[in-house]
Amino acid sequence: MLRFLKGFGLFSAVVLGAAAVPVQAAGDLLVAPTRVVLDGSRGTEVVLNNIGSEPATYRISLEIKRMTALGGLDEIDEGDANDAEKAALNMISFSPRRVTLPPNQPQVIRVGVRVPEGTAPGEYRAHMLFRAVPDAAPAADPAKPATSGGVSIALTPIYGITIPVIVRVGDLGAEASIGEARVVDTVDGPAFAFDLTRTGNRSVYGDIEVTRPGVAEPLLLARGIAVYPEVGQRQVQLRVPAELAAKLKGPVRIRYTEDREVGGGAIDEADRVVK
Amino acid sequence: MRNIALKRALMGAAIAALAMNASAANAASATGTAKAKILRQITLTNTSDLQYATVISGATASTVAVSTAGAATCGAGLTCTGTTTAANFNIAGTSGAVVLVGGDSSVTLNGSLGGTMTSSLTYSATNVTLSATGGSFQVGGTLSVGANQTAGDYSGTFNVTANYQ
To answer: Per residue in B33-56, pLDDT tens?
Structure first.
């Protein structure tokens, strides 16, 4: 019993240690969930939490992003939005749009959807951006003495998180298939790359698992890979350590499965020889 | 004495934990139901800023570069002092999740005594696959300093986003 208590005491100490978080900049944030799919009749809630050590004001907005052939998301100005993108902005409502939160204070953002009658079947999407409004950047740092003849520089990042908000109208379907796989060298180091081809009138979304035949432990796992309707094909490029890049070469099985939250069924699987 | 009190408190906690276990074990026969929805989350924290430190301009235009690892390259004709750092952002979320990194490719800085400078921005990665402990990315840049650049404190803001697809 005494030993048990000692163990307990040690555990408590660890917890206390973990609670003493390092000083963080104002504006750090948590967002949950990380993806919203609405059927057009019901809204949902998204939680925003200030995980910084100081109070912060956050702004919530909707952005238009388009997927690129390389799997990136390009930001699109509202003026350049096409009809479907504008329709998405009009369908999705949310509140509040601005909130000041003390540290560790969560706030629920209500997301509503209203599909106008006569809207063509399809998938309508916007990306909800959560980001802190920065304090006015100090023109002069009082901690530093003025440097004569020199320039001092203060760059303030305005950083945030975006999650997709997808509205599905009508009966939609899509399929995807896995193309050739290869190990490529990028400026940031080696990467495992393959193509995903999509057909149908909605996006596909799921997890990628790369296994070696006969080996239970997957070589590579990447969750949350989407192919959006604006692209028929995208490249998936996943950076891997050099050691893993060497291991990936040879015969592999690539599985693309639906999100576990919607059943985790297979979208496609393919045997490939990685060069 | 304090020690004993602490031990008692711990004992109390241990008993409470046991009691909770007991009630959990009995939950199957109880009529009440407890519901909890666990949502997937993402967190983004900024742990260091992009710092060019102090630059003393020369008679010709030049550049100061800070790599995504934080190393500085001071261009010809310039004097650079102080410690430079790259901006660092930590991301945490579902293990294995792929997060896309987006942001401005350049930023304009305005001086407190007039004058402007521009800095290009470079990102250490376009996407980050989160491990069980999360992931991170860094932002470096190259600052263009004019010939006899007006002295002063220059400030600017740039946008960075972590995007779920």
So the answer is: 777 777 889 999 999 999 998 888
**Whether A160 contacts chain B with CB within 8 A:** yes
Residue A5 lies in a domain: no
Task: Look up the domain containing A39 and give its range.
Answer: 24-134+155-169
- What span, in angstroms and rounded, lies between the C-alpha atoms of A96 and A111? 9
Check whether residue A233 and residue A116 sit in a common domain. Answer: no
A162 and A220 part of one domain: no
CATH value at residue A102: 2.60.40.10
Query: In chain A, positions 43-62, which contact chain B (CB-CB < 8 Å)?
Result: 47, 51-52
- For A16-47, b where at least 16 C-beta lie within 10 A, e where not — what string? eeeeeeeebbbbbbbbbbbbbbbeeeeeeebe
Contacts of B51 in chain A (CB under 8 A): 153, 155
Nearest CB partner across the interface for A150, out of B151, B160, B163: B151
pLDDT digits (tens, 9 = 90+) for A214-270: 998 999 999 999 999 999 999 999 999 999 999 999 999 999 999 888 888 999 999
* ipTM confidence: 0.83
Quote the pTM value.
0.82
Range of the domain at B132: 42-164
